[in-house]
Amino acid sequence: MDTIKPSDLEQNSFTIKVILVENDHLATVNFLKKFGEKLSVKVIESAEECLEFIKNTYPPDAIIIGRNMGGLKFLETVRAESWTRTLPVIITSDQITQGLIKEVLEKKGDDLFPKDFSEGDLVTRLEYFIKRRHYEATQQAKSNILAVKIPLWKRSIDVLSTGFALLFLSPILAIVAILIKLDSKGPVVYKSRRVGAGYKVFEIYKFRTMRTDADQLIKNMGDLNMYTKETAEKKIEGLCEDCAMKGVCQQQLFFDGEVVCEKAYLAEKKEKVAFMKFQNDPRITKFGGFLRNSSIDELPQLFNIFMGDMSLIGNRPLPLYEAEKLTTDKYIERFAGPGGLTGLWQVTKRGKGKKEMTEEERIELDIEYARNFSFKYDMKIFFMTFPALLQSENV
Predict the structure, then answer these.
(1) Distance of alpha carbon 246 from alpha carbon 304, whole angstroms
(2) For the Response regulatory domain, which residue ranges apply (predicted)?
(3) Helices (H), 56-97
(4) Is the pLDDT of residue 160 over 80?
(5) Which of 59, 343, 382, 391 lies in the 20 to 30 Å Cα band around 105?
(6) Please, are residues 261 and 253 in contact by the beta-carbon 8 Å criterion?
């Protein structure tokens, strides 16, 4: 098989692994002289041996085969098999003609190089193949995540438990609705768009706990805050300081149907969080404080569970602007698990009385649940939820 031995895939430490199908000793030597320090090269002397080799070995990053080695026929065979259909294949030839270029494209070859590689950049092309493969694998993973299927046992528990709960709690729900109406003006139920399993967008239901003029109230209060006033003066037409200097947004974010400056949005969000972190939020109604601390405000989500928008146990559905920030390879897996009323991070952190928890910690726990959820795991979280229901702080 190998005529020269600097090139075994198993022995080299190079990251780009290629198979060179070549029986010309001089051509092999020249190839190794040119690329031996940049690539991990396996030399195989025939197309038939190469096919047999890749059947029993983890596929390389690319196969380089000459036209005179039966490269076009080899290409047809590789593309006909599902397990090698996407394997990058480079054809080499002593002479490159328009007809050969057309034929290689028709047979779905990935590239065509002169046999001596006097033109083109082989290493750059191989690096592109690796990036393309990673991108395709990522897209496939995202596609699988977007097709999240809720197990029958989980859906059955959701329907039966929430069905009985809604019947049993209906008098309490009616009383709470009346008290909300008497306590303040506005609708009984608050609706908010959330992103659940597989990036499904739906409207989540909660009992209203804030005044209807909450946004205007906090805006007016923010104007009295010196820090908010100082930073607001630095913003020009919704842009952050850096973008304002250039006159155009450098980092856009799609939020509530509008394009906003992401830096300005995050700065404003940080200001609001810093300003509103006090014991008695004036936006919350008198009765709303009780509803929040007792978690009764979340009871209308039983309807969401019954209708299949989310599950009883799972990862908390996120607001649109937060979900938009978690579409990278590192975070997307948290959406592979069912959305839920209560979940792992709620019982692990809040249940232990910890007041602070980073977003990174929440995401890690969400990913852990998405990977490991089962009937036994769900039951454990369910029974751990009760001690975590009552919060100690009025925020």
Answers:
(1) 45
(2) 17-130
(3) 71-80
(4) yes
(5) 59
(6) yes
